[in-house]
Specification:
about 50 residues; 2 helices; secreted; ARMET-like
Length: about 50
């Protein structure tokens, strides 16, 4: 079942359920860093404690 349908069905019980977002884990063996978005790169640096 697609996430949109699940969200629609659960929205009646809890409206915040559709706002949940989970971080994607990065597979360093297959990821092409040159193709990542700036937002994703900033998140990686933040996780590493490199953002000042």
């Amino acid at each position: 079942m697609p996430p949109e349908k699940v969200c629609e069905k659960l929205r009646t019980k809890d409206a915040q359920i559709c706002e949940l977002k989970f971080d994607k884990s990065i597979d360093w063996k297959t990821v092409d860093v040159k193709k990542l978005r700036v937002k994703e790169l900033k998140k990686i640096l933040e996780d590493w404690g490199e953002v000042g």
